[in-house]
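DM between two lab members

TW: hey, do you still have the YhbY family RNA-binding protein entry open?
JB: yeah, one sec
JB: this one, 104 aa:
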Amino acid sequence: MIIKGKKNRYLRSQAQTMKPVVQVGRDGLSENLLKQIQLLLSKDELIKVSLLQNTLVDADQLVDALTEFDGAIVHIQTIGSKVVLYKKSPKVKNRKYSIELEKI
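TW: and the structure you got?
JB:
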């Protein structure tokens, strides 16, 4: 799934003031880390992930691993060592950004 245009711009603007909720460190990409990111996305819909200096993983590897793990995860933006990810929440009560995206 790819989000383009005004929808992508909206999600980027919302992520601008967010702080990273997950940090990828020396351990790299593990099954546990991928599950944690998937759980956070199902709850919050939009998260920011930070890649620490001592990690051996780059942003492209992280995005590839996540989209392979869960095809519904969408890469919104990468700036330096920060990656913004989006996934529509399965629970209606957790949908904040997807409701706004439907209006656009």
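TW: got it. The two ends are 17 Å apart (CA to CA). The first strand starts at residue 22 and ends at 24.
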